[in-house]
Each structure stands twice: as C-alpha cells, then as structure tokens.
Amino acid sequence: MIHFQKFTLDNGLRIILHEDKSTPLVCVNTLYRVGAKHENPDKTGMAHLFEHLMFGGSANAQNFDRVLEEAGGENNAFTNNDYTNYYDTLPAENIETALWLEADRMQNLNLDQKSIDIQKSVVIEEFKENYLNQPYGDMDGIIREMAFKHHPYRWSTIGKSIQQIQAITRNDLIDFYHQWYAPNNAILVISGDIDSQYSIELVKKHFGSIRSGGNTSLSIPCEPEQLSKREEEKNDDVPQDTILMAFHMPGRNNPDYRAADLISDILANGKSSRFYSGLVREKQVFSDLDAYIWGSEDPGLLIVHGFPANGISLDEAENLIWEELEMLKKEGCNKDELAKVKNKAISAWMFSNIAINNKAHHLAFFEHMGDTGLINKEDSLVDAVDMERINRVIKRILRKDNASVLKYYAKK
Amino acid sequence: MTKLKPDIKTIKAFKNLPVHDFQLDEGIKIFGFYNGDVKAVKIDFIFEAGQAVQRKTFLAAFVNAMMREGNSQNNSKTSEEILDYYGIFLNQKVTHAWSVFSFYLPIMHLDKALPVAYKMLFEPVFTEEALRFLKEKTRQRLRQNLQRTDYRAAAYLKNLMWGNNNPLGFYPHESGLDELNIDDIKDFYKTYYPNTCHIGVSGYFPKDIKQQFNRYFGEIPVSYSAPKTSSGPESTKPVAHHIKMPNKNQVSLKWGKHIPGPGHPDYFTLKVADTIFGGFFGSRLMRNIREEKAYTYGIYSTIRPTQYGCTHTITTDVGHDYLEDTIRQIDMEADKLKTTLVGTEELRLVQNYMAGELLSVFDGAFKHASIYRYLIEMDMDFSYYSDFLNTIYKLTPDDIRNVSNRHLDVKNMHKVTAG
Hints:
The complex is a heterodimer of chains A (412) and B (419). With 412 residues, chain A is of the alpha+beta class. Chain A folds into 2 domains: 5-207, Cytochrome Bc1 Complex, Chain A, domain 1, CATH 3.30.830.10; 230-410, CATH 3.30.830.10. Chain A is 42% helix and 19% strand. Chain A has 15 helices and 11 strands. In chain A, the strands form 2 sheets. Chain A has a 6-stranded mixed beta sheet with strand order 1-2-6-3-5-4, sandwiched between helices. Chain A has a 5-stranded mixed beta sheet with strand order 7-11-8-10-9, sandwiched between helices. In chain A, helix 3 packs parallel to helix 8 (196-207) and helix 9 (257-268) crosses helix 15. Chain A starts with a strand and ends with a strand. Chain B has 419 residues and is an alpha+beta fold. Chain B folds into 2 domains: 20-217, Cytochrome Bc1 Complex, Chain A, domain 1, CATH 3.30.830.10; 240-418, 2-Layer Sandwich (Cytochrome Bc1 Complex, Chain A, domain 1), CATH 3.30.830.10. Helices cover 43% and strands 19% of the residues of chain B. A 6-stranded mixed beta sheet of chain B has the order 1-2-6-3-5-4. A 5-stranded mixed beta sheet of chain B has the order 7-11-8-10-9. In chain B, strand 1 (20-23) and strand 2 form a beta hairpin. At the A-B interface, helix 2, strand 5, helix 3, helix 4 and helix 8 of A face helix 2, strand 5, helix 4, helix 10 and strand 10 of B.
C-alpha cells in the first residue's frame, strides 16, 4: 500500500506527497500534461525539444543542472507522446533547492536564441545517434505512419524529420511554453524521506504565486478503425532481416487495456511464453521474438517484433507468427497460462514500486489519468481480468485486418 | 516565489543499513540487508566465475547462460514455467569478477524459488543441443552488434587495453563461437562454480531465512579457492586506430588506459579531478562539447575500478565533421586541468555532487546489496565511502592540478574511433 496525500493550490497546481523513510533521498517529480500528440503536424518534435530547453536556465537559476548538482542531486526527463516528465533526485535535506528550481523554470524560463540554437543542434545529434546511425533506427517512425493516418501518434516524439526540428522558431517555443507549462497543467509529486507538513509549506512558498495559464484542452483526432491489412517493405544496410507487426489496441483507461497487456505477456513475456518456448527455443525458427504494448493513453499499439533464424524468410516468418496467433484465437488461452501472466504482472508491479523515483512517476501518471488511487488498485484490476475478457480481446486485436506488417530486409 | 537560492546543506556522514552476515552448514557465505516495507525479496547467487578467468572468448557468459537451459530433474522449460507462474524474475549477469543470478520474488513464493535455484545452479545439465542453440542466438546478436560503431570501437579498445592474452581483452570474433565446445563449458563449471558461491539477500526476509537456505544449499561445500588468472593487462605503447565503417552518420570515439585504483593514495583525488573533467553532466567536457558546441548528445570520462585493474576511458559519438575539433577540445580540457587551478566554486559544486552520488549508495536494501557485492570484490567495507566523503571535502585546487599532472594522461591513452 502506497500512502499519499494530495492537495491543489489556487493556481491549479496539483501536489501529491509520499513519505518513504527507507532512503536518505527525495524525488521531486513534475509532470506536464503535454506530449508529442499535442504538436502541430507540421512542427513535430517541439515537445521533446522543449524538454531540452527546460534545462537552459531560468531568471534566477542560470544553469538548472549546476544548481541541482551543487545540492548533491541528479535529474533527468523524458517526453512521450502523451506527456513530459521531469524528476530530480537529491539528498533529503536539500529538497528546497529542487522545488525552487522547478518553480523558477515553470514561470521564468530562459528562451533566448542562443539556448534554442544549442538545444536544437543537440537534439539533431540525438536524432542522428538514435534514429539514423543505428541499424533499424527508422523502424518506429515507419510503423507509426503505417498504423496511424489521423491520430498524432503517427509521428515519433523526436519529430518527423531533422528539417522540421530545424524549422521551429523562437516564437513557436514561447507560445508553446505559455500554453502548456503552467501550474494548472502540471502535477508535482514529492516522494522519499520527507516531512509532509514541511513539504507543503515549501511548495506553497515557491509555487503559490505562479499564475495559472490558459485553457489547455485540445481536441485530438481519433484514429478510425483500420479495415484492412497494411503491408510495407524496406531494404537497408542492416545486419539481418526483421519483421514488425503492429495491432491497434485500446487506450489506458479502457477496461480491455489490461487484457491486451496480458496478451502480450502470454505471447512473449518470459521463457515459458508461447513465442519463446515454441518458436525460439523448440522450433528454433526465430532467434528473437518479442511482443509488447506501448502503454499509451489513447488507443495505441500491440507490437510483435521478430528476427527469424538463419534460412527462414520473412514471408515464412510472418506465416509462423500468424499460425501461433491463430492457434491462440482458436483454442483460447488456458487457465494456468492466465494465472501465470497475472501473477507475473502483479509481481512486476510490486517491484516497480520500490524505488522512490518510480513511485513518484507512477503517482503523477495516475493523477494525470484521473485517479491517483489507481496506484493501489492496479494489482486487483489485473487480477480481475477473466478468461472471457482475455479471449474476447485476443479475437478482437490479433486480426489481419487490424495489422500493419513491416518487412525490413538486409541488403545483400 | 523567492528569488534567492535556498541554502545548500552539506552531507556530513553516511548511515548504512546493518549487514546480516552468516554462513550455511558447509560454509556458503551469506550477506543480508533487511527492509520490511514491501513483501518482496531479491536473492543474488554470486560466483567467482567472471570474464577474467575464462580461457576462451565468450566462455564465462556461455556457462552462465547454459545453466538456465537444463538441469537434473526438469528440462529448462519446467523451471521457467515455475519461475513465470509465481512471478519470480531471474536476471543474469557476467562481469569481470562475477557470474551473478538475481532472483526477484514476492516473499510468499520463497519456497517455490529456492528449489528452482538449487537445480539450476547446482545440478545443471549441459547439452550439445543447448550449446548449439545459444551459439546461433549469440551469432545473430553479435552480427548486429558488430555493425554498431560504439560496439566495434569498445571491443577494439578493450583488446588494446588488456591484450590478446588476457581474457578481458579477447576480441569477440565470430570464430570464437565455433571454438567453444561442451567440454569447455563443463570444465569451467566444475572449476569455478559451486565452490565459489556467495549469497546476498535483500528486502523482506523471514527470521528463519538461514534454516530455509540450509535446507537447499546447506550441504554445498565451498572453498573460495578457484584459480585466478595470473596475467595482468599487457603493457603496450599507446595505439591509435580507426575502424572504417561506411554509411554511418557519426563516429564513435573510445579512448582508454589503465590507472591506479582504490588503495592508491591518489585514487580519491583522481576521481574528483576526472569528475570535473568528464564525469557528470556538468563536467567540462560535457559543457564544452555538448552544451557550447553541440557536437554530441553526450561525452563521458569514466574511471572504473575492478579487482583486476582500474581503467580510465573517454567516450562519445560525434558527427564526422566534428571529430577533429572534438579531439582538440579533449586534449585542451585535459591540459587546462594540469595548468590552471580549478575555481573554488566549481570544486565546491563537484564535491557536493559527488557526496550526493555517494549518498545514493544507501538508497534502500537492494542498492545496499549491489554495492556490497562490489565491496566483496574489492575486499573493502562501507568505510570506503566514508573515507571517500572525508577526502573529497579536504581537497584544494592545488591537489586537483597536481593529481591531474600525475595521472590524467590523455596523451598516452589508446585511441580508437569507428565510423
């Protein structure tokens, strides 16, 4: 049971506190409810670029990282399609430094041209390092465009292209800051070795006078149902052939979401899973075969990704995967298998709630999704997924009409 | 909102969780770190069977992996089914010194995990079939890795730093896979496994944990006397080498050499100097090459002490056009530390940053257990961290300059680039 307290400031900032006395550290986690899906399709990459700019200093703290380091702390951040999350971990006695820094960059961020130019270049190098220089680096972008025609999940968080990142202007970024980086669009979580009463006083002192921003509601286009199978092929200088299959699945708040998550586990989580024990270990037709879900807020994807063994073509590989999926659809999942993936999911959930930064992130995430208390219900909700639901969701998701299949060939 | 920066408090001391030390009936050494907040436990089985004692490339990693492929009673699938069914996670890892099997489980399934661990670790069966299977899997992954600039450069640098005759320097050629046979696997297991076992337990564990361990592992004799490798790193003149890899957008740069490790009177000071140089996000290299010039997403200088020697490496990935100036800047930053005194404000910042980093060693029971494994490897105890903390705050700008002149020897590093 994770105990927490929650309150809201007049400016709309939501605060969640969680005491954990088993550590000498605190984590200050700030979630801004803006991600790549809120971007204009012609200016993608902005949310992620903005994450970089948040480290460019603010009016009273010229260098965010340096001040935090001076307090013995470390920080990091990530942007996904749904939101942007920042976390600072530091010795408990220096908690005020982190709050002061976060408050200053929430209202007085430095957005001068120099900071923007530098961070744009850094992001472009990141683009090259992770998306161009790596074998298969463009795969995420391709599968997104295949699966999504309307919803903004069709582009990666890094952005569609280097050209689009380059074209973002200072005014675009100032507008973005004013629209999204305001207390009423943020969730602040403090976890670790804290005194709740003292922490509340500190939060009020540093965040209380920040003005709330405007309206942040934005209607995001829904993705219409996919009606037929989509296929693409690509040839590139990569070490070996690979196949990627993407299936549309429900979003995070849909009761079928957890069923889809468990289905990906039935397929590929652990050495006793269907894919591993059947196709990798026993038949040895794949050297690797994985299945996982995105975990996105809006309806997202269940992905199957495989490297066929030597001598197995991608067409054969695809057939072998379909055979396995058809068998699961026809026979349904068995009782022990469902019990197993549930036990595993519940155990994994327990282990993911031990480190203070994970707990802080989860608390912020569930508050963002509308119910912080879900952090303590996740295990019983997983346990409640029954056979009827699993088999129904299997039949609904793992269909050819619902699939996008990318065959990625190694140039000979 | 206040404009004034809050006062920063300095860390004065560390408090570690108490170590629960005990031995099983035939001598297996156990250490434990207790925290009852969550009913979850991590059990590490640690063997002195790392890369440093392998006679062939890939051998240590293969034995570690093959132990999971079959054992006396079950075939491996059944063990895997038990682990999966009860939500027990098993991570395996091979380092220079150790081969480690870490079981993460809800404490209520302790009685399910221990028999599986016993069969897997103490009654493994090695088959030709499993060896073939793992070779194929490894071969495919290796082919992928060898197309990565960072992997290629790192493997080449290791080879230069440790030499062809030291197991830590073996280059991962595909032919090394063909040369492994089942007898190598069996011999290595016999020599380095059951008799070198340590167990670490962390998180929630019951009072009778010793009896529970004794039921399964009490009769396993240990001697902790497996042969060590005798050869240290080969001393060679520094080599510069470029690995040409067409169609890459970036070049991976990996430089490195051996330096004195913990135990040497300069060690703590050198760690501080290296942190200023390239050891954290606010380091001089990072500020210069990422934040000012935007040549790269990251650049790091790292000192890594192990039982077998201590290495100092510099690593980054940069666009082709930036390589030449990046090299110039690295040399320039190293020279600057040797000639110009570091400012007291910068030194103060790094002292506090490092104190915070050391404090994070004491973040919860699992972290304690990982750190303690390292302390066993280095034959040290928690006082190492207190000594480190005390030394950090005594250092002056002169100390940093002097130690840089003695050991921050970038010019004599092996220099590998790939791209």
